């Protein structure tokens, strides 16, 4: 059994072959070049149980995402009689009497509800509010399966500017505190949905159904703010595409089949356009059917969608199966950008809170850097060094507000606080930039002085070498009185006649001492410069 979560999934029964085998089987009849290869995230063989579908289809991850605030959808697609309803809800007789909760035939919806409540029970730090609705689209009319009324009045599908999507007006949304409430919604809807029979299925769905569970999760954050996320999960059981010749539909069933096929065709156009990189940003004909209006968000919005393609491997159904396989692999190419749905006011508060926190941190950091410079500055001043640094303002104009108090502020006050922080941080940034520029200049000066020092040291060495080699007549002070080893203002001269003698003769004390004496080297360098430029006579 494959174990990968994914958006595309294939289920078939009765015959042990998958989509790839199907193509190979056909190829023996036709040309070898006609082999069709399709790839899906998971392929379920006939032996797969309902539990396997829950474990390996990826639906568990989808439910977790719905709890985290994403808009999720799981839908079954395929020709009539291929097992869509069986996969989602199990056989229809499950809902006739009192349901047996341990029946292994229960489908994906029932199992997902159990899994959902298990997850919710484990997340004690959240408060959950669950609501469910169940509708069907029958002959392009939207009917509330939880409140169909005696005449099965249809509801209007409208566009919401606020949410930027379509919604069904006056649809019943039932509070579901317990698992039983959700199961009751499922049972009620299954009892009310339109079912008919034709040559290919005794219990054929004559409508598309959408069961939606809205999950609002509330959590108290560190700052005391309550954050709520609005996730949802749609379970969509599409009516099967029908070749009316095969189903031998007539009268009412024929009208139903035409409407089913028409809406599936529009769904096909939408999927084809969305999966084509050139067309996906163009016009998508969502408005051409009620089904695509209500699935628009799942197909291309900010949601996550799991598609389960159901096929019949019988040779008799080859054309329909190939169609479904193509449909599913096209749908697999659609890319959505899932986002967590939050209350806009709470999302604003959360983002402002995040801004304040990061600005506060930046503020602290900038202040500490400035403080460091300030200390350095005072130290230098103390040592008598002249440093031209700007004085640093210790105090700030920011109101000191504790994080716990933030929830009490309304969004305009929060925005004002963010503005103040931004102004203050901008000023601190500028001050810091100035200090860094000064620092850079000082470092550059220091480097120049060092280089100059090195140059002079080298010169000094050269001079010393010459002095050592030359016989030296004792130094005669010419400028101020020279003391000890210092040669400032000392004239050194050599007598050419004494050259030979000089090698044996003792070096003058001043020179010897100077080469051994490294203290006050900087002053010596200055002195030597003087000598080289003015007084020294070297023969
Ligand atoms: N995996 C399966 N294992 C056993 N029986 C199955 C399986 N899939 C489908 N069936 C049986 O096949 C019949 C048709 O299945 P189902 O009604 O689920 O098809 P459908 O795709 O929903 O058809 P329609 O589009 O007409 O509603 C049912 O009797 C169902 O119990």
Tell me what the structure shows:
The chain is α/β, with parallel strands linked by helices and 539 residues long. 45% of the residues lie in helices and 18% in strands. It has 15 helices and 15 strands. The strands form four sheets. Strands 1, 2, 3, 4, 5, 8, 11, 12 and 13 form a nine-stranded mixed sheet that branches. Helix 5 runs antiparallel to helix 6, helix 8 runs parallel beside helix 10 and helix 12 crosses helix 15. The chain starts with 7 loop residues before the first strand and ends with a helix. The structure holds adenosine-5'-triphosphate. The site of adenosine-5'-triphosphate has 17 residues, from helix 4 and strand 10. Adenosine-5'-triphosphate binds next to helix 4 and strand 10.
Short description:
The protein has helices at residues 19-29, 50-56, 59-68, 84-88, 108-122, 179-192, 244-247, 252-275, 290-300, 318-332, 344-382, 411-469, 499-502, 509-516, 521-535; strands at residues 8-12, 42-44, 71-78, 126-138, 141-144, 157-160, 165-168, 174-175, 195-198, 201-205, 208-220, 226-237, 303-311, 473-477, 490-493.
List the helices and strands and how they pair.
Blueprint: E1 8-12, H1 19-29, E2 42-44, H2 50-56, H3 59-68, E3 71-78, H4 84-88, H5 108-122, E4 126-138, E5 141-144, E6 157-160, E7 165-168, E8 174-175, H6 179-192, E9 195-198, E10 201-205, E11 208-220, E12 226-237, H7 244-247, H8 252-275, H9 290-300, E13 303-311, H10 318-332, H11 344-382, H12 411-469, E14 473-477, E15 490-493, H13 499-502, H14 509-516, H15 521-535
Parallel strand pairs: 1-2, 1-13, 3-12, 3-13
Antiparallel strand pairs: 4-5, 4-8, 4-11, 6-7, 9-10, 11-12, 14-15
Bound molecules: adenosine-5'-triphosphate (ATP).
């Amino acid at each position: 059994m494959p174990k990968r979560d994914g958006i595309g999934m294939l289920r078939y029964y009765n015959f042990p072959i998958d989509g790839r085998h199907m193509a190979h089987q056909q190829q023996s009849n036709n040309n070898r070049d006609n082999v069709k290869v399709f790839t899906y995230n998971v392929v379920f063989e006939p032996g797969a149980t309902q539990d396997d579908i829950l474990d390996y289809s990826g639906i568990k991850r989808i439910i977790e995402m719905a709890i985290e605030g994403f808009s999720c959808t799981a839908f079954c697609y395929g020709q009539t009689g291929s097992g869509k309803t069986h996969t989602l809800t199990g056989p229809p007789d499950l809902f006739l009497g009192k349901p047996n909760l341990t029946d292994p035939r229960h489908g994906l919806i029932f199992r997902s509800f159990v899994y959902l409540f298990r997850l919710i029970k484990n997340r004690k730090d959240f408060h959950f509010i669950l609501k469910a609705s169940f509708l069907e689209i029958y002959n392009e009319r939207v009917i509330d399966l939880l409140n169909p009324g005696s005449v099965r009045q249809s509801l209007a599908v409208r566009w919401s500017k606020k949410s930027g999507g379509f919604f069904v007006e006056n649809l019943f949304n039932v509070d579901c505190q317990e698992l039983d409430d959700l199961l009751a919604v499922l049972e009620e809807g299954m009892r009310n949905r339109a079912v008919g029979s034709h040559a290919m299925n005794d219990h054929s769905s004559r409508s598309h159904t959408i069961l939606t569970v809205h999950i609002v999760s509330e959590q108290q954050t560190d700052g005391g703010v309550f954050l709520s996320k609005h996730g949802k999960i749609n379970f969509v059981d599409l009516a099967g595409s029908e070749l009316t010749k095969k189903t031998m539909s007539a009268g009412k069933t024929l009208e139903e089949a035409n409407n089913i096929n028409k809406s599936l065709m529009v769904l096909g156009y939408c999927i084809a356009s969305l999966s084509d990189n050139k067309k996906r940003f163009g016009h998508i004909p969502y408005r051409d059917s009620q089904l695509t209006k209500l699935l628009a968000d799942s197909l291309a919005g900010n949601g996550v969608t799991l598609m389960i393609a159901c096929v019949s491997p019988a040779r008799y159904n080859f054309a329909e199966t190939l169609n479904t396989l193509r449909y599913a692999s096209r749908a697999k190419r659609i890319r959505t950008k899932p986002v967590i749905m939050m209350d806009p006011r709470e999302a604003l508060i959360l983002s402002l809170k995040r801004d304040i926190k990061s600005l506060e941190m930046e503020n602290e950091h900038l202040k500490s850097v400035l403080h460091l410079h300030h200390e350095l500055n005072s130290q230098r001043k103390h040592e008598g060094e002249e440093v031209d640094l700007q004085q640093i303002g210790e105090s700030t104009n920011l109101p000191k507000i504790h994080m716990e108090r933030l929830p009490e502020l309304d969004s305009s006050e929060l925005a004002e606080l963010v503005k103040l922080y931004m102004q203050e941080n901008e000023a601190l940034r500028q001050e810091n930039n100035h200090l860094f520029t000064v620092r850079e200049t000082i470092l550059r000066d220091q480097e120049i002085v060092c280089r100059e020092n090195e140059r002079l040291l080298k010169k000094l060495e050269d001079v010393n070498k010459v002095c050592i080699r030359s016989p030296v007549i004792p130094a005669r002070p010419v400028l101020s009185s020279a003391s000890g080893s210092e040669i400032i203002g000392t004239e050194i001269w050599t007598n050419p006649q004494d050259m030979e003698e000089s090698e044996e003769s003792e070096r003058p004390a001043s020179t010897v001492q100077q080469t051994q004496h490294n203290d006050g080297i900087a002053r010596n360098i200055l002195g030597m410069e003087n000598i080289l430029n003015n007084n020294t006579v070297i023969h």
